[in-house]
Amino acid sequence: MPRTINFSVIILVCLFMLQNKVYGSVISRDSVNYYLKESKKNSYSDFNKAKFYLVKAERVAKKLNDKNLIADVIYNFGSNYYIIGSYDIALQNYIKAAEIYDSENNKIGLAKCLMGKGLIQQGFGRDKEALKNFKKSITICRALNDKKFIVKNLLNIGISQTNLNEYDEAYKSFQESLKLSVKNKSSEDSQMSMNKLANIHYIKNNLDSTIYYYQKVLIDNVKPNLWEEAYALSGLSEAYLKKGDYQKAINYGLRGYNSAKIVRAKWDIARSAEIISKIYSQQNNFESAYHFLRINKIYNDSLYAESKIKEVNILQLEAKEAENERLIAKAEIAQQKLNNTRIFVGFIFFLLIALLVFIYQYYKYTSQKGKFFKEIEIKNRDIQSQQSMITAQNIALEELNQTKNKIFSILSHDLKTPINSLIQVIELNKQNDLTKEEQTFIFDQLQKQVEGTSLILNNILNWANSQIDGTTVHFEKIALNQIIEESISSFYAEVIKKKVSFNHDKEETIFIKADIGQTRIIIQNIIANAIKFAPLNSHIDIHYTSDDKFLKIHIKDYGNGLNQNKIEEIMNFNKRLVSEKGTSMEEGTGLGLLLVKQFLINNKGQLEIQSVEGKSTEFIISFLKY
Hints:
Layout: H1 2-42, H2 47-64, H3 67-83, H4 87-103, H5 107-123, H6 127-144, H7 147-163, H8 167-183, H9 187-203, H10 207-218, H11 226-243, H12 246-263, H13 266-282, H14 286-354, H15 359-430, H16 436-469, E1 476-479, H17 480-490, H18 492-498, E2 501-504, E3 511-514, H19 516-533, E4 539-546, E5 550-557, H20 564-572, H21 592-602, E6 606-612, E7 616-625
Parallel strand pairs: 2-4
Antiparallel strand pairs: 1-3, 3-7, 4-5, 5-7, 6-7
């Protein structure tokens, strides 16, 4: 009897533990779904908050080791990065999610990833390729009767058709998406459909229908997200501008601009700013029109720069993906060959047992087998050679990418100061209180500034080419004091603004042996530093000394000077420094002295710094004598 009771207790305990485990698993899955839902709520308004919930969902999904849930989280990461325009990261997530969905035979998951890839292609204007992915995705969704993703694919198909000027086909796609989204009670999809229908009507000049659909978005029972709200408000502004109702146009335009700024949607900000600029221009309010035109240009330039960088990253990612697929295909072929080899060897082994008596056939088989293994060895060597080639290509791509980043940094650093100088000279002229003689003088100096800027740009491009083709130094005879005079002229506006004078000992022509392009960049950066840290109404001294091997140029400003720690940091560093502000709060990038040191090494030169803290700083640059 006691044994029966003990056995019953054990069974009850096991059942209780099993129930808790199942219950805990259900709760964990519910947690993942809850976090995904909260992430979607914030995806169009607060990226960081959306990402916060996705990180939580990922942690729980990995703990459960549920591959479909893990893939869902990765897919949602891709969608959130797509919304903020980080297409390269989005594509990585879609590819990763697709691999997991494929391994789990999750058809709807694959459909979602196809749609994601299409969206990224659409973002780069590759709408024909995007349409192929959307149509593959919608075919899977229709087969599974997944109405939610049927609607999303219809919207994306309509957008690509619009971009390809297939307006009638696009209108049909948006009508179908609106009908299904209303049936599905999906306000977000129905609002997007109405916005896109309004845009088609605007393209066809049906302004009343345009206004009707945009207004329907704004007065919908469910408040639209900021993304759709900004699109609708700017669309209404554009429609009323075309109708000539400038008051309504400006009201809706400013509201759309504010909504776009809150959601940080660069494309929508640029669009609304352009519309507002046109409205103010029609009202002869040219100051406001110019203000918003500048905003439009700033965001368009930013979008262009980002798109180019992301396009490079996407191309590299696609190339890597294609290479991976090629390697996988190779591995599958190799595996198939291995399987065939095993079957073949097994068959031969069977024949050997049966044909041991036939000596001739045994020797014939041995000969054939040796030849076969020799061919395999040759093929293995070929595969190893190809793998080495792929590794070398990957290293070359990485080096090219690093060079690209360095070129962008140099352009930003060395062109910022000359362009700011040009702006300052133009602003002096805009004040209209200059005499004719002063204007003539100013424009003469402006010409010098433009020529100086052109010189800087040519130097940077020459350096960039040397970085891409390999660092090549062309030693030649250079008139150093002439280069110094050219560099001083290129900083004319800064010198005038700070009332700094130069005491340049230039009585005779001084020659050095160096690369002229790299020498210009060295001198420009040292003079720029001296001007930056020189006090107002001060002077900068430039003179020359020499020894048996080197000709030395001394450039001295009378600013606050450098302490010994700072001097040691400059002399010992091999990467960009944190830039300090100048005496007039000038900003820098910390790249100038890195270029000086690198190019001095290339030209077999030297750098020395002497400073009296609180009084002066003197840079001594040594070049080879000619």
